[in-house]
Write a structure and sequence with these properties.
The chain has three helices and five strands. By secondary structure, the chain is an alpha/beta fold. Helix 2 packs across helix 3 (123-149). It comes from marine metagenome.
């Protein structure tokens, strides 16, 4: 407890817990697909950090360009009956950041992977698990993006 009080008293902050709004107050997110899990997640993360997300590019000093937002799953192992036993979910995002017309950060790539077991008898539950994992991977990437933006 004393150590915790000391750390908070001296101004220590965990990475990316600072006020990102001091650097970026309005941002535009440019993407080809505004319906992906990552897009929704990063948009919510910005709002939770007090950053206004605008649809008007001219209104924002900062523009986050999502160049690649790709997710997929693949079979890792199959049973003796030739049915899938294990899947791997892959989520990849590539992005750049512009301030006005100047590129501040260029072509940053994030790749997250996670596997899960599959059971044909639990199809509904396993599809929900896959959705949860996809959301979790998008959240990890969103936090990595915010951490990087916190360092500009």
């Amino acid at each position: 407890v004393i150590c915790l009080l000391f750390l908070t008293g001296c101004g220590f902050e965990l990475q990316n817990t600072g006020d990102l709004k001091q650097t970026i107050n309005i941002i535009h997110i440019q993407t080809n697909d505004p319906y992906t899990v990552f897009y929704r997640n990063i948009k919510n993360q910005f709002r939770e950090n007090g950053i206004r997300v605008t649809d008007n590019r001219e209104e924002a000093a900062y523009v986050l360009v999502i160049e690649k937002d790709f997710s997929n799953d693949r079979v890792l192992s199959i049973s003796a009956k030739n049915t899938p036993k294990e899947y791997e979910i892959v989520y990849q995002v590539q992005w750049s950041l512009f301030k006005d017309k100047t590129q501040l950060i260029s072509n940053v790539k994030h790749l997250e992977l996670q596997d899960y077991s599959f059971d044909q008898n639990q199809l509904l539950g396993k599809s929900k698990e896959a959705e949860f994992i996809m959301d979790s991977l998008a959240t990890r990437i969103s936090r990595a993006v915010l951490t990087r933006l916190g360092n500009i």
